[in-house]
Amino acid sequence: MEPLPQPSQATASPAVSGADARLRAQRWDDDGPRSRRGAETRARLVEAAKAVFEEKGFHEARISDVAERAGLTHSAFYHYFDSKEDILREVAAALDHTLNAGVDIILDPTSTATPHERVAAAMRTRLEAHRKEARIMGVIEQVSRHNEQIRVLWTQFYQQHVKEMAHSIEQLQQRGLADPALDPVIVTDALAVMTIRFAEQSLLQDDSGYDFDTAVEQITRIYINALQLREPKKPRRRRDDTG
Amino acid sequence: MEPLPQPSQATASPAVSGADARLRAQRWDDDGPRSRRGAETRARLVEAAKAVFEEKGFHEARISDVAERAGLTHSAFYHYFDSKEDILREVAAALDHTLNAGVDIILDPTSTATPHERVAAAMRTRLEAHRKEARIMGVIEQVSRHNEQIRVLWTQFYQQHVKEMAHSIEQLQQRGLADPALDPVIVTDALAVMTIRFAEQSLLQDDSGYDFDTAVEQITRIYINALQLREPKKPRRRRDDTG
Amino acid sequence: MEPLPQPSQATASPAVSGADARLRAQRWDDDGPRSRRGAETRARLVEAAKAVFEEKGFHEARISDVAERAGLTHSAFYHYFDSKEDILREVAAALDHTLNAGVDIILDPTSTATPHERVAAAMRTRLEAHRKEARIMGVIEQVSRHNEQIRVLWTQFYQQHVKEMAHSIEQLQQRGLADPALDPVIVTDALAVMTIRFAEQSLLQDDSGYDFDTAVEQITRIYINALQLREPKKPRRRRDDTG
Amino acid sequence: MEPLPQPSQATASPAVSGADARLRAQRWDDDGPRSRRGAETRARLVEAAKAVFEEKGFHEARISDVAERAGLTHSAFYHYFDSKEDILREVAAALDHTLNAGVDIILDPTSTATPHERVAAAMRTRLEAHRKEARIMGVIEQVSRHNEQIRVLWTQFYQQHVKEMAHSIEQLQQRGLADPALDPVIVTDALAVMTIRFAEQSLLQDDSGYDFDTAVEQITRIYINALQLREPKKPRRRRDDTG
DNA sequence: CATGAATGAGCGTTCATTCAT
DNA sequence: AATGAATGAACGCTCATTCAT
User: Fold this and answer.
1) Of the partner residues C57, C193, C225, the one whose CB lies closest to the CB of residue D198
2) For B119-155, what is each residue's pLDDT tens digit?
3) Domains of chain C (ranges, CATH numbers)
4) Which of A102, B58, B236, D173 counts the most CB atoms within 10 A of its CB?
């Protein structure tokens, strides 16, 4: 009913960077870098860890792999992190926030685009982001299955995504623009899973997968069809967002 | 498996059960059990391995965990399998084939059910199977990322699933019963990913997830909507379509 | 001075076959084969063991290698032998006795050949025997360094060889046919070592070593030179072996 | 090594010490010690390995034996070497080079000693060296039979020895000082085998073997006799051949 | 006599982690 | 801050050996 919450960035960021901030703070107190140089080394380690995890997976990755990639010795690692899990948490926290962006476009009251166009734009944004981060997301999700702390991170992340999208669907249903028989939560979950995993499985950049534009188009169509998304009665005469 | 109307079934099945047979034969020749007792022990090991992998994941699982759960010594394991990968292959090969069943229902020419009913039945079958096997599937998929032999198994498995479903969609499109703008392969891929992962993530039996029936209903609806599945013009004489 | 001891075979055999007999008796009492078939299997095992030891060396050889080569299971081995050392003793005991033959030719009073010819004949016999058995001899000697029981066997074997030859040299020296400044024992030891090891190192049949005839000729020459072997004053007029 | 009159020395030496240098360099680059303390530990390990191999042989030697003897944990070993073979290579490379010294004395043009004296000196040098290193040489040779890399080391080592000596014999033959009927290569091989193995078998320090001086004298005599070594035409006043 | 199943001891190796410098 | 040395725990795997059949 209301003219949409806020730019979702606003909602999304706090959630993630909240966790982020907490983690950093924690580390800072413990054994974080106290000098400029230290901070740089630490950043290099996080970057290296991400790359190594993407390449070899979490379990196969050795701490020395990470350290070496950061141009450090194996034991220097322990100046900054307590364990592999520890640095993975940092990697997760540093993940590009654009992963959770794009959904709000669908309902953006200022937009003059058709719902179809909006969904397409949103899908493109998300798939692009996921395609880029799919590998590390896979790692995080994998680890989350057997590591409590990572699971929390992952869940927070995923739930936020789902919550936003569920809200969008509800809004559309209320305006009579989406199939009212759909359960917003379950459907969102299913479609989110589809998007994320499809990107992870079939859109990895080095994969001989589908043409990206075609994939975006088809996934978009699935969304629109699945939601039975209709054009608002009077598309663009005047603002008609109350349905 | 049941009588298979579609050709794809016919081609696909041998592929998988062929690999299956080969794997078993290989093992049998190599160091498989040569006595009744041995066969039982071997089976116990496979069962134990599945359970352990599901609980701890592949990397965290120790061979002794498997052996002990089967009531054996660590070293007895090596009478039957060469490595953890080896027994995982066996576990994968022994996976309930119902995982790949159900799709053909959709096109079954002998059926008098409406498309909606058919999809619902297929979805239920699949989701039930996946809900049961999701954990181990997750393990297999995880390992497949860094193990060639397992990847082959996984790919064969997944491809078969996708191929069958894509065929169904094409058939429906040709009969004018499904949205002709959809690319059967991409859409199948996306929807298959959705089903499998949704089951894996939100339907695990011990999970506080959704009500299963509701979930089936919603996923079914997504399918039907996504494909824009229509009733055939004159289904049978009369239909008292539930719905 | 005496007309030479006996045909060395006579001396040699008791020594070796004595050990042999003792070993066999021992085994027979313990767990030797009690049936015809058993004896054959046992023989097959010994044969197999020799071959395996020659191929892989003692330490690298596995009991299962031996058993499999004999067409048996690994555990059947234990019906006949207690350990690898055990069967190696048997292999050693069964070694071709011709290894220790040939030396007596040098002094054979019935021979009409020149000393040069006799040495040549003896060398050829020995080198041929050693060339054939060098591999297994090497194994035995190697094991003898750290296994008391095998060391006894090896020493017996080697000492007998040396003793006979030393005797020959003494005889020749007494007849004024060999350099009197040589210490029969040390020289024999050195020359025996040379012969055995040269065969082992440079005459192995599958080796791209020297031409066998040339090698025999050269080794013979070394012997003759080293001993400063001279023709007896009246070579072949009549038997003059009493000196 | 000393000033080398013969060309073979010149060519041969680089070959061996080249391999030597390469091996060391390789290790140094890989995982060699990078500190003073590390270098000492490494040296202690090599020393310990030599001792253990001599005592127990290569196969019987456990890595923990070596580590413990060096006062280290089992796993510390792996900071310096990759495997038992690896450290054996190091032990072999560190072998006293005097093993290959002495031969050149025989032809040394600056020497005023008689050939007999020269050979005696050379033999003494060699036998002393071999007596000291015989055990480890035996181990190396033993391992070389089934290990390619060690075989190369051993062969290089042995070939150099043989090549030098063969050159000496040829020179002597050309000057009419040695039996022209001898094949330099085969004879060298045989005599080298004799020397090395005799030392190994009968001169080990803890062995109840022969008196060392007597042994040297006898081996020397065998050499001189075998080569039919004559005094050069005007070496001393007149030939005073010990008959 | 022979087999297959099962065991237990032991070894090589890896790796995260700690410590002294 | 960073390094190299060192440790200890753990794991995979091999193999000789025993046992029931």
Assistant:
1) C193
2) 888 889 888 888 888 889 889 988 888 888 888 888 8
3) 12-93 (1.10.10.60), 96-227 (1.10.357.10)
4) A102
pLDDT digits (tens, 9 = 90+) for B171-195: 889 999 999 999 999 999 999 999 9
CA atoms of D84 and C8, how far apart (whole Å):
46
Instruction: List the structure tokens of D7.
Output: 């060309």
Residues in D 45-74 with any Cβ partner in C closer than 8 A: 56-57, 59-60
Question: Among B186, B219, B227, which would you mutate to test the A interface (most chain A Cβ atoms within 10 Å of its Cβ)?
Answer: B186
Alpha helices in B72-147 (DSSP H): 77-80, 84-93, 115-144
- C-alpha closest to that of D182 among C214, C124, C211: C214
Residue B19's pLDDT band (cuts 50, 70, 90): very low
Give residues 24 to 43 of B whose Cβ lies within 8 Å of A. none
3-state secondary structure chain D: CCCCCCHHHHHHHHHHHHHHHHHHHHHHHHCCCCCHHHHHHHHHHHHHHHHHHHHHHHHHCCHHHHHHHCCCCHHHHHHHCCCHHHHHHHHHHCCCHHHHCCHHHHHCCCCCCCHHHHHHHHHHHHHHHHHHHHHHHHHHHHHHCCCHHHHHHHHHHHHHHHHHHHHHHHHHHHCCCCCCCCCHHHHHHHHHHHHHHHHHHHCCCCCCCCCHHHHHHHHHHHHHHHHCCCCCCCCCCCCCCCC
Alpha carbon D125 to chain centroid distance? Answer: 10
Report the amino acid identity of residue D63.
I
Amino acid at A44: R
Nucleotides of F under 7 A from a protein CB: 1-20
* Interface contact D57-C194, CB threshold 8 A: no
Please give the model's pTM, rounded to 2 decimal places: 0.79
End-to-end alpha carbon distance in chain A: 8
Rounded CA separation B88/A11 (Å): 43
> What's B149's DSSP letter?
H
Q: For residues A193 and B194, what is the distance between their CA atoms, to the nearest angstrom?
A: 6
Residue C128, number of CB atoms within 10 A of its CB: 17
The Cα-based distances of B202 to A163, B139, B212, C3, C74 in angstroms read 15, 16, 10, 102, 51
pLDDT-derived band of residue C24, with 50, 70 and 90 as boundaries?
A: very low
Mean pLDDT value across chain C: 79
Burial pattern A117-146, b for ≥16 Cβ within 10 A else e, equals ebbbbbbbbbbbbbbbbbbbbbbbbbbbbe
Which contiguous run of DSSP H or E holds residue B148? helix B148-174
Residue B144: both structure tokens together: 């497949």
- CA dist., res. A49 & res. A88, Å (int): 7
Protein residue nearest nucleotide E15, by CA to C1': A62
Q: Which residues in chain B are closer than 8 Å to A230, comparing Cβ atoms?
A: none
**Which pLDDT score is estimated for C112?**
79
Is the CB of A226 less than 8 angstroms away from the CB of B226? Answer: yes
B183 to A227: CB separation less than 8 angstroms, yes or no: no
Computed over every residue of chain A, the mean pLDDT equals 79
Q: Which has more confidence, A23 or B4?
A: A23
